[in-house]
């Protein structure tokens, strides 16, 4: 008899790829999870990464022909895990229309946005991301969602807001067009090669910072992403 699927078992399958379970919930109709209606038994498991572990796994993997190699790599892994465990894989990079991953992530993990709009994690700081979600047509057992402190509430200086040379952030929104214009020119060379200066200014989770090559990879991907 096959043992019931658990979040821990999913985590074991992810570990070799540097990805982790970021949280889970039983969706309702208002959560806009494809194929999950009101009253249906289902579970959405949010998958992501924190720190440099996923980058090391990605960098060691064989290369392929793709405009978005990390999306292709992580997408193939999560699709295979979904097939193996009887679920469906959903991704934040397929669209438009795009799925509400930030809303799902906040519900699954209880995080809130930082002043530069990246969700703030009390341990990882701003050095984390979401790669996809696994959806199951039955209710997996879930632990109570932890009550996270929000470090930005007690950060008096908000150094992230003063660090951006293009004044992209005002504490409520991010002017992504202004950011792309800045990093497309010579004035944005430091951001492109070393990573977002506002993100680097945050004092939370510094031990999980991405390495410069990972930061540069993500900045290039952001620069060429559709507006």
Please provide a brief summary of the model.
The chain has 227 residues and is of the alpha+beta class.
Topology:
Blueprint: H1 7-15, E1 20-25, E2 43-50, H2 53-60, H3 69-85, E3 88-90, H4 101-109, E4 112-113, E5 119-120, E6 128-136, H5 159-163, H6 176-183, H7 189-194, H8 197-201, H9 212-224
Antiparallel strand pairs: 1-2, 2-6, 3-6, 4-5
Radius of gyration: 18 Å
**Measured distance between first and last alpha carbons:** 50 Å
Helix content percent band = 25-40%
What is the tally of beta strands?
6
Instruction: Let me know the average pLDDT.
Output: 92
Number of helices: 9
What does this structure look like?
This protein is α+β, with helices and mostly antiparallel strands and 227 residues long. It has 2 domains: 7-136, no CATH class; 151-224, no CATH class. Helix content is 35%, strand content 13%. It is built from 9 helices and 6 strands, in the order αββααβαβββααααα. The protein has helices spanning 7-15, 53-60, 69-85, 101-109, 159-163, 176-183, 189-194, 197-201, 212-224; strands at residues 20-25, 43-50, 88-90, 112-113, 119-120, 128-136. A 4-stranded antiparallel β-sheet has the order 1-2-6-3, sandwiched between helices. Strands 4-5 form a two-stranded antiparallel ribbon. The longest helix is centred in the middle third of the chain and has 17 residues, at 69-85. It is globular. The mean pLDDT is 92.
């Amino acid at each position: 008899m096959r043992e019931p699927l658990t979040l821990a078992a999913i985590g074991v399958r992810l570990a070799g790829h540097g990805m982790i379970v970021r949280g889970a919930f039983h969706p309702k109709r208002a959560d806009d999870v494809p194929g999950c209606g009101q009253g249906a038994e289902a579970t959405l498991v949010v998958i992501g990464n924190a720190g440099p572990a996923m980058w090391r796994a990605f960098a060691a993997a064989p290369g392929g022909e793709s405009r978005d190699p990390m999306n292709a790599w992580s997408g193939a892994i999560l699709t295979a895990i979904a097939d193996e465990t009887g679920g469906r894989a959903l991704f934040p990079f397929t669209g438009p229309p795009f799925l509400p991953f930030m809303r799902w992530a906040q519900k699954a993990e209880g995080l809130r946005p930082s002043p530069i709009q990246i969700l703030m994690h009390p341990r990882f700081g701003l050095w984390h991301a979401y790669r996809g979600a696994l959806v199951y047509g039955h209710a997996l057992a879930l632990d109570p969602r932890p009550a996270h402190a929000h470090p930005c509430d007690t950060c008096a200086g908000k150094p992230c807001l003063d660090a951006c040379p293009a004044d992209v952030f005002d504490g409520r929104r991010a002017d992504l067009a202004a950011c792309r214009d800045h990093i497309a020119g010579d004035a944005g060379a430091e951001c492109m090669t070393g990573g977002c200066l506002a993100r680097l200014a945050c004092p939370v989770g510094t031990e999980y910072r991405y390495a410069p090559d990972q930061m540069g990879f993500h900045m290039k991907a952001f620069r060429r992403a559709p507006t």
